[in-house]
Structure formats: structure tokens, C-alpha cells
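OP here, attaching both records as promised.
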Amino acid sequence: MRFFDFLKGPDINQGVKEYSTTDGAVLLDVRTPDEYRQGHIPGSKNVPLQSISKVAGMIDNKSTPIFVHCLSGARSRQAAAILKQMGYTNVKNIGGISAYAGKVER
């Protein structure tokens, strides 16, 4: 690991790849519904950061793998921290869709 590697955020492309090979995983997009409609990763579920508590009604099993992303990685970092406080044990912030190289759907 190079000295400044810790400054780099998570790699969303690697995160989506990991999500797609993880059984039962959920890909959570915490952007606003408007941002989500403008383009999102296929298979992602939209739960805006300000409504993150609604995840409790969607995902019963607290050990479900949850891969969280937003536009830049800031909201997903917050969302991941909140989800961990809610008792979810397998949460990963994968960063921002702005760096995503794959297909998006509208």
C-alpha cells in the first residue's frame, strides 16, 4: 500500500462487482429519488439518506450484506454508519456513482 492510498475513497466498480457475486446482497442507493431517476445501477434499491431508517422495514436479517453508494461517497458513508448503529453487521460503503464505469438504467 502506498503512503497516500488511504486518501482514496472506496472503488464503486470493485464494490458493484463484489455485490454481484455475494449471495443475498442488497445494493442500496441513498441519493434522492430525483437523482435515482436520472440514472441508477441496475438492481439497486433507492432509500434516500434522510429516510434510511426505512431499511429496517425492507431488510429483516441484520447480517444481510448491504453495499451502499450515493453520488460522491459522502452520503453513503453517513448511511453506512447509521445502518451499523441500527445493528446491521455487514455494511460496506462502496462510494459514489459518479466514478461508476458500468451500465446505468433510467
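Record two, same layout:
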Amino acid sequence: MSTIPEMNGETLEQKLKNGENITVIDVREDEEVEEGMIPGAKHVRLGDLQDRYTELDKEDNHVVVCRSGRRSMKASEFLKENGFANVTNLEGGMLGWPGDVSKK
């Protein structure tokens, strides 16, 4: 059982609208991201995360997102194992995201 907390799309959308300091990390593949991503999200493909996680600030609040929530849970666990204290998985991924999306 994972120890990673989850947040639903409505809660994340509200937190972002309220200006909370959250770094959204989208771990989907390039072609998935082309269909749209959460505005302001940072795109780091799951396959690249091992090489790029040092670009992220360990002190930030991170919400990790993929299409349905499975890959982002793997990414969240990886970040937690590498010293990231505040990592949350987006429950249901982009399939559960109710808000606007931005195109790359």
C-alpha cells in the first residue's frame, strides 16, 4: 500500500485558483501533453524523471499527474524515496481534471 496522499481534481483546481504554491508535475508522454495540460504544469516524462528530478525543489509542494493516476503514483513514490517531503498524486489523473487545459 502506498503512503502517497491523493488529491482529486476539484481540490487541486481550487487550490491553484486560490494561489496556493503548488508545483504540478505532468509525467505523461509528449503526445499526451500535446492534447493539453494543467496550466502552469511542468512536463517531465516519467521515463526522464530519474535524470531530471534534481531540477525540482524538494521543499515545494508537488502534485504529480498522468492520464489516469498510475504512472504519477510511481513518480510520486520515486520523488518521496529521493527526499521530497510534500508529494501528492492527482487521483484519476487528467481523466479526473475538471479545469481548463493549456496547449504546448
